[in-house]
TrEMBL record:
Domain named DUF4166: residues: 20-204
A Pfam family matched in the record: DUF4166
Protein name: DUF4166 domain-containing protein
InterPro entries in the cross-refs: DUF4166 (IPR025311)
Length: 229
């Protein structure tokens, strides 16, 4: 039997996890069993969005800290991953991304957990968990690729599947450069109907934090937790 509170990435990828670069393996080896949290700090070399309709969609999503419409180059960036147990007893880790523009910061928040039902990681988007998607993982030449699968939105008691024609398809590649001794990432979000929506690429350095007290910074705590997957 696999431990419930080992890294969700190890659980989903199994032996393929060993195909990842050692730095990438360490990067995603956070759980409540090892009491390690991860903070990355670096620069987004480019942040872009799509057409006017894409910008409108991003403005709506930004109200829940799910993507945002601002664009720019050489923007300071942080990624925070804190493992914790949610109110439903699940092993969860935060996915808090902060972008420091000159006038204000923008956020892209989420919470991820390994689904015993779907045998995949699912990520709830925003601090209010109003959306969720199934996460696919793949090792590629030492890098890790994330792609999104089925997506759902929650409205009161309703759980609505987002049609594949309009959903935002996430494609993220993250890798480690041995020469530059930095982590790199390249994110693209697109829709079959609306085309390219949003993306960014850049680099960051790693910091591993002792997280025995499991106290997530207040600004990263979900304001609502969702049990439906």
């Amino acid at each position: 039997m696999i431990e419930q509170n080992i890294s969700a990435y190890k659980r989903q990828m199994g032996l393929d996890y060993e195909k990842l670069h050692p730095k990438i393996q360490k990067r995603f080896d956070f759980s409540t069993s090892n009491n390690i949290a991860f903070v990355g700090k670096g620069i987004m070399e480019k942040i872009w969005n799509g057409n006017k309709l894409a910008v409108l969609i991003l403005k709506i999503l930004s109200k829940s800290n799910i993507l945002f419409p601002k664009v720019g180059e050489n923007i300071e960036y942080e990624i925070h991953n804190y493992p914790y147990i949610d109110q439903f007893g699940r092993e969860v880790h935060s996915m808090n991304r902060v972008f420091f523009f000159e006038q204000e910061e923008q956020r892209f928040d989420g919470s991820a957990t390994y689904s015993e039902i779907k045998k995949h990681i699912v990520e709830y988007l925003g601090l209010d968990h109003r959306m969720v998607f199934e996460m696919e993982l793949k090792a590629e030449n030492g890098a890790i690729r994330f792609t999104s699968g089925r997506q759902y939105a929650f409205f009161a008691r309703l759980k609505i599947r987002v049609p594949s024609l309009i959903r935002g398809n996430i494609n993220l590649l993250e890798w480690y450069d041995d020469e530059k001794k930095k982590f790199y990432l390249d994110l693209k979000v697109s829709s079959k109907l609306f085309g390219p929506l949003f993306g960014f690429n850049g680099w960051f350095d790693a910091e591993y934090i002792d997280f025995k007290d499991r106290s997530i910074p207040n600004k990263f705590k979900p304001i609502r937790e969702e049990i439906r997957e």
